[in-house]
Design goal:
With 195 residues, the protein is α+β, with helices and mostly antiparallel strands. The protein has one domain: Muramoyl-pentapeptide Carboxypeptidase, domain 2, CATH 3.30.1380. 37% of the residues lie in helices and 16% in strands. Strands 3, 4, 5, 6 and 7 form a 5-stranded antiparallel sheet that branches. The protein has a two-stranded antiparallel ribbon with strand order 1-2. It binds zinc ion (ZN). Zinc ion binds next to strand 4.
Amino acid sequence: MNYQKIVNKENRLSKTYRPKNLVKIEPKVKGSINPNRKILVEQETFENWNALVEDAKKQGFEFYISSGYRSYTYQEKVLKHYIEKEGVDAAIRRVAIPGTSEHQTGLAFDYFFVRDEENHYDMLEDDQEYQWIKNNAHKYGFIIRYPRGKENITGFNYEPWHLRYVGGIATYLYENNLTLDEFVLKQQKRLVLTK
Ligand SMILES: [Zn+2]
């Protein structure tokens, strides 16, 4: 498994790409999450997420995953749905073109937190829960994949609720304020220079 795999508009995944070691998560039953819905993520990603969740609990914070792996076929279905509903232009702005979503790697997911029995899907800068994620997720191998101020580099709007597992390089990225795109580009340049 390549935990640094980059997926974006230039680096698309094929229709058949599906990570082998996906594990099933029990969705949160209480609240608005549909208990019958399947949530899948890659195994090492899941193990590290569990470690994060356990440590967060000690701080009084409660985190859950709302959306994990999304297949190519699923992405196609969603796009088709919005094209029929809103037309091509609006649909393309709203949803990712199939193959360009990081959710297809199983290494990325959207999370939410629960406070006072309520689910919070939108993260505000002031939320203690979000501050904790921002400052600690890297210790478990996660990065906020689409940070504020890097929209031109990632090609995505700021998404505080979207985490990506990258493994050991997470702390390096965090300390140097780098996106995965910038890191991969750096690596490629270094390869060219040392050839
Ligand atoms: Zn996401």
